[in-house]
Amino acid sequence: MKSPLITMTAVTGKPSREEIKRYLKSLKDNGIEQVMIYPRSGCEIEYLSEEWFHTVGNFIKSAEEYQMYIWLYDEFNWPSGQAGGRVTAIEDYRLKAIITKGADIGKILHKSQYKDSLFGEAYFPDLLSEEAVDYFIKCTHEAYYKRFKPYFGTVIKGMFTDEPSIGYTCDEQSIAYYKGMEEDYKAYCGRDFSEDLHHGHEDFYKDVYAVVGNRFKQAFHGKIRAWCDDHNILMTGHMMEDENPFAGTKHGGNVLKNLSTYAVPGMDDIWTDFEGNTQISLMSTVEFAAGENGAMVELFALGPIDMTYAKKRCMIYLTSCFKIDHYFLGVSHMDMRGNMKITDYFHNVASDQPDFAGMKLLGDDALEAALYAKKDFTPDVYVKYPTEIAAKQIQKKWDAKPYFDLLNEMNRNQIQWKYTDTDACGDIPVIDFTDDLAYILKNQTYTKTEDVIQNIPHTIRATDKDGNLPEGLFVRTFTDGTIMVLNLYGASGEYIVSGKTVTLYQHGVYASDKPVAVAESVSEKDIADVFSVSYQQDNMCRLMYISEQTTAKIFSETDIKVRFAVRNGVDAKLCDEPIVTNSETEGVLSDGFKTLYGVSENVTIKSGETAVSAFDDVTYLPSVFVLGDFSARYENGEICSVYLKERKNIYEIGEKFTDFGGVEFTAEVTVPENAKGIMLEGTDLYQTVSIDGKLCDERIAPPYIFEIEKAYCGKKVCLTITQYSTLGPIFDDVGYYNQNSPTVKWVGMPIPTGTSFGFEKIRWVF
User: Fold this and answer.
1) Which of 87, 556, 617, 704 is 20 to 30 A removed from 29 (C-alpha atoms)?
2) Is pLDDT above 70 for 5?
3) 0.90 exceeded by the pTM?
4) Domain range for residue 757?
C-alpha cells in the first residue's frame, strides 16, 4: 500500500527532466510516494501549452520509474472551471447573476466581474452552463487524456478539482443564474419564477437554491465525475466554503448532495486551526459524503512554516476519525519563486526543510490513520444539515454562532454526532433548527446549548484525573469498541480514558487498541550533565526591510566571517559597497533557494555595527540572507537588526537556544546494564539517537523514548542526540513583518513561534 501522504507539488519555474527526477527521488527517499502536479503562481511555463504537457510527461514518466502515483490538478491556481482563463475568455461562458432586490430586480448580469485582494479583477466560469463545463473538460481533462492515455488508472490515480463555485459574483442583491432556470423552478415547486421573485414569496430563496444546487450537481459535479469514471481515474477535491452551511449554500447549492458526487470527497483544512469553530462541521460534511474510495483532506498550506510534527500527526488522526484516508499536503514548492506572487503565507513539504527526513515517520502514522478511517462509529444524535434554512437566509446578515456553538459543545461533551439530510434516522434522535437557529430535539425547542446537551444520552469516555470534563480533547468511539482520544489544545498530563490512566502530551494521540510507548522505570539523574555541540550546516538568517526601509544592521561581538545570499535582481550593498555574488550555490543553499540567489565569497564583518542596504524584501523570499558559523539574535524596530556571536559549543541540560538546521549533542557515557532506551523531555523537534555513529532510533513527537540495542549495555559509548529545525528560523519574526509591512494584505495562518534546540531531561529507560 502506498503512503496516503500526497504532496501538492507547486510546479515553479521551468523544471527540467533531471530536476523533476531529483525532486521526486527526494520525496520517495523520505517516504512520500504520491504527488499532485499543481500549476500555481511561480510557474513560468504557459499553462496547457505543449511545453506544459511535456513537463507533466516528465513527472509521469519519472513517477513510473520510481513506482509513485500522480494526481492531476484541473486548474491553474484556483478556483476550478476556468482552464487558466480559456473558459472565461468566452463571454457566454462567464458566470451570470440575476438581481433579486431593488430597482433592477430581474435584471440579468452577464459580465460577472469580481474584484478582491486575492484574485484581483477577474471573471469566473459559469459552472451552471453545460456548454461551458464541456469546454472546460475539453481544455483540461481531454487534453491530458489525449497525451497520457496509457497512464490513466495506473500511474495517474485521479483528478483534483478545487473550490468550484457558483457564488463568486453573488452579493446581497443577486443570486446565480442560468438559462432555463425559470422552467426548472416551475417544475420543482409549481410556481412562477418571475412572480415569486417580484412579490417576494417566502419560499423563493429556499426553492431557487434547491434548483440551482441541482443544476450545479448536474452541469459540473456530475459531468466531471462521469468523465473520471469513464477514464478510470478518481474524481477528488473540495468545494468552496463548505465548512459553513450558510456560505457553502451560496457557493454550492446543496453541499451534501454535490460533495457526495465525488469519488473521493474532500475538504479544505489548510488552516490547521484546532480551536476554530468550523473545523468539525467541515469534517462531518466529508464524513457524510465518504464512500468506498474514502475521502481526502487538503492540509497545512497556510502553515505556519514551523508547525511541529506532533501537530501534523494529530491533525491527520483527527481527520481519520471522519473517514478521511487521503492526505494532500500543501504546499511542496519545487523552488520558492511562487512566494513572489503569493507573499502572505507559506508552508513547505520538501527537502528544503532540515527536518524533512521526519516525513518517513509521519507517513507511517498516516498509514495507520488510514486504517482507522475505515472504521465507522454510531452517533448519539444526528444533526439535520441546515441547507433550507441557509437558503432562506442567503441574503441576510446571518449569525451562525448558535449553530457552531452546538456542534462544538457536543464535541466538548464527547457526544458523537453525524450529519443527516433527512428527519427519519431510526431510533437515533435528530437535532433540527428553527429559522433563527434555535434547537429542536424530540419536538422540543431549546435556545441554550446546555439544555440540548442534557437531553442527549451519551457516555463520557475521557476525564482529567479529578473526573472533570477536560478542555481541548476530541474523543471518538468506533463501533468495534476502539476509543481514540486526541489532545487538540489541552494541557499535557494524565487523563482517565474508560478507567485507564493515559498520558497525553500536547497534540498527543491515544488509541485503545494500540500499544503506548511508556517507560517502565526511568533513572533519577540525567545521563550526562554536559554535552558538546556541533552543527550540520551554517546558520542562515534573513535581513529584514520593512516598508520603505532600505537599511538593516548587523551587530557582531567579534570579527566574524559570513557569506551573503542575495536574491537575483536585488542590488545589495555592504557599507555602501556592492555585494558581489556568483551563481555557485550548490551545497550552500537548498534546492528551493539555490537558483534564485547568488552567494558572495566569505566576508569578514568587523566587531560593532555594519549596515547592509537592499530593497524589495518579501516575507518568505527575502532580499538578503546572512550565512555563517554564528548564533543570531534579532531586534526589530525602526531599523531591523541582527546580532551575531559565536555559536554554543558546550550544552548544559535545561538550556534552550535558537539556531537553524541540524544540531548534534554528543557525550561519552556508560550504558547501564539492562537499559532499554533513552527518554528526552522538554522538546518538540524531530530528532534521532545514535551510538558510536550508528543510528539507533528516531522520533517526531512525544513521548521521546528511543530504543537502544542490548549489546551496548555495560559499555562506554559515544552518544549523539541530533535535533532538526524547520525552515522557520531563517525568516526572523514574521509576525513583526506582517504587522509593519504595507505589502501584506491577508494573513491566514498562525504566526511561526520559533525553534528551540535543547531538552530539559535525558534519562535512561529500564
Assistant:
1) 704
2) yes
3) yes
4) 649-765
